[in-house]
Amino acid sequence: MGSSTTSLPRLVVITDWRLPPGRLLGALARALQAGPEVAVQHRHPEATGRRFLEEARQLAALCAEHGNPLFVNGRLDVALLVGAHLHLPAHGPTPRDVRPHLPPERLVSVAVHDVGEARAASGADLALVSPVFAPGSKPGDTRATLGPEGFQALAAVLPCPALALGGITPERAGAVRGAAGFAVISAVLEAEDPAEAARTLLAACPARAMLRVP
């Protein structure tokens, strides 16, 4: 069997289910208009298992309609049920743990906050490195921020491309050197024009060939 390639996203829009569902899904639909390099990550830690799956199915249908990738946060079973890629939070299963259970074309992204987690990211296709700046969607977050220099240092250790997460806005994006892209919540979901916000963030990161070969 010949090998195939899977394109990696350069912008990941993470869900915020505190928003009314209609508003959230509408903003995501507009953001996906920015092109196939925009992905959605389904994150809803407060949801029951049934609700999380129902939301994942809604997002999978939305992403399939636009031809964009969907990542499911932390739930291998849900990712398999809806045909999505998988995002692994820190301190959970590793990419090597889950890879044998995923179809070869599925991507695995990981959360990275420090050097130890960066070194443990072996086998991941993509890392979301945070918090680069104070997260706009988490005003009570008291974690020390990495800043652009800290992000660059972790990106240099990672065995895979790094996306910058945490307080990323179109204005700040250009200051983050070495990013293969960005992951955001409010910068897109709460933008007056989510499609334009997504395009601006993509434009702040030079396009490059980002392919995973299974």
Q: Give the CATH superfamily.
A: Aldolase class I
Estimated radius of gyration: 16 Å
Based on Cα principal axes, name the global outline: globular
Uncertain segments are none
The helical percent reads 25-40%
Strand content: 15-25%
Query: How many runs of DSSP E, i.e. beta strands?
Result: 10
Q: Main sheet?
A: 8 strands, parallel, barrel
Which class best fits the helix and strand makeup? Answer: alpha/beta
**What would the CATH topology be?**
TIM Barrel
Name of the CATH first level: Alpha Beta
Tally of separate helices: 9
Order of helices and strands: EEHEHEHEHEHEHEHEHHE
Read across the widest sheet, the strand sequence of neighbours is 2-3-4-5-6-7-8-9
Explain what this protein looks like in three dimensions.
It is a single chain. The chain has a single domain (6-212), classed as Aldolase class I (TIM Barrel, Alpha-Beta Barrel), CATH 3.20.20. It has nine helices and ten strands. The protein has helices at residues 21-32, 49-66, 76-82, 95-98, 115-119, 147-157, 170-173, 186-189, 194-203, and strands spanning 6-7, 11-14, 38-42, 70-73, 85-88, 108-112, 126-129, 162-165, 181-184, 211-212. Helix 1 runs parallel beside helix 2 (49-66) and helix 1 (21-32) packs across helix 9 (194-203). The mean pLDDT is 92.
